[in-house]
TrEMBL record:
Keywords: DNA-binding, Transcription, Transcription regulation. It comes from the Bacteria. This is DeoR/GlpR transcriptional regulator. Gene3D superfamilies: 3.40.50.1360, Winged helix-like DNA-binding domain superfamily/Winged helix DNA-binding domain. Residues 3-58 form the HTH deoR-type domain. The lineage of its organism: Bacteria, Bacillati, Actinomycetota, Actinomycetes, Micrococcales. Pfam families: DeoRC, HTH_DeoR. InterPro entries: Carb_Metab_HTH_regulators (IPR050313), DeoR-like_C (IPR014036), DeoR_HTH (IPR001034), NagB/RpiA_transferase-like (IPR037171), Tscrpt_reg_HTH_DeoR_CS (IPR018356), WH-like_DNA-bd_sf (IPR036388), WH_DNA-bd_sf (IPR036390).
Length: 270
């Protein structure tokens, strides 16, 4: 295992638990205690964790991994959700997108889509986003016209936040908003970890005729710090597994259509 892979796994572990001991890292990664200690020291030097006696802890409550350090948790689920989102987008559509790994995969699916291929060198869809990584990746796709909101970027997510997001969206009208979330419940609706990102996502949703939340099953039934919108404001949830009966009833009551994405089928090599 390469060092960067180890660092990613250690960060995920600290994000989940809040703190870890050197022995925990050694056992989880199958490395020596000396290697585990060096990895924790490296992360502390990068100011991603706080070094403690015998281990390390997250920088604070509500700790959020920077996007570039996130490993592909639920990777197959995200790919399946991305394909289902792509199937919802019609040629000529204007699509609002916030940031995050699931929505990034959806943007990649749109860029690769043969159904949404460029005609005569002209873009077939427009993506309006506050996510710099999505804008950068999609800018090379001739079938996509990219519009980036104003705002100040967060290092953790590459998302633009602040009053310039709302100001740049004020005169837009979007066909569909595709939103990634950190949590989704009937009681609190769609939520995320950072209030600035919640505000930006809320403004994207406000100028869209249809709001789609793209979230794998690990996000369903949990709520995080900042609300994006109430459940009633969501039109469609695209996820990777059927909801529990109680949640299904709650989402039906809120008139939220639940789309369960077909699983990604691995292609075997011959």
């Amino acid at each position: 295992m390469h060092q960067q892979q180890r660092l990613n796994l250690v960060l995920e572990l600290i994000s989940e638990r809040g703190n870890v001991a050197i022995a925990d890292v050694s056992e989880r990664l199958g490395v020596s205690t000396a290697t585990a200690r060096r990895d924790l020291n490296t992360l502390a030097e990068q100011r991603l964790v706080t070094r403690t006696h015998g281990g390390a802890s997250a920088l604070g409550s509500g700790y959020e991994l920077p996007l570039q350090y996130k490993i592909a948790r639920q990777a197959d689920a995200k790919l399946a959700i991305a394909r289902a989102v792509e199937a919802m987008i019609e040629p000529g559509a204007t699509v609002g997108m916030n940031g995050g790994t699931t929505v990034t995969e959806a943007a990649r699916a749109l860029g690769r889509s043969e159904r949404l291929a460029s005609v005569g060198g002209e873009p077939s869809i427009t993506i309006v986003t506050n996510a710099l990584n999505i804008a950068f990746e999609s800018s090379v796709r001739e079938n996509i016209k990219i519009v980036v909101t104003g705002g100040v970027p967060r290092r953790q997510s590459y998302e633009l936040i602040g009053p310039l997001v709302a100001a740049s969206l004020r005169d837009f009208s979007l066909d569909i908003a595709v939103l990634g979330v950190d949590g989704l419940t009937a009681e609190f609706g769609a939520t995320t970890l950072h209030e600035g990102e919640a505000d930006a996502s809320r403004h994207i949703a406000a100028v869209a005729r249809r709001v789609v939340v793209a979230a794998d099953q690990t996000k369903i039934g949990r709520s995080t710090f900042a609300r994006i919108c109430a459940l009633d404001d969501i039109d469609v949830l695209v996820t990777d597994a059927p909801l529990a009966p109680r949640l299904t009833a709650q989402f039906e009551k809120a008139n939220v259509q639940v789309v369960v994405a077909p699983p990604v089928r691995a292609v075997s090599a011959h």
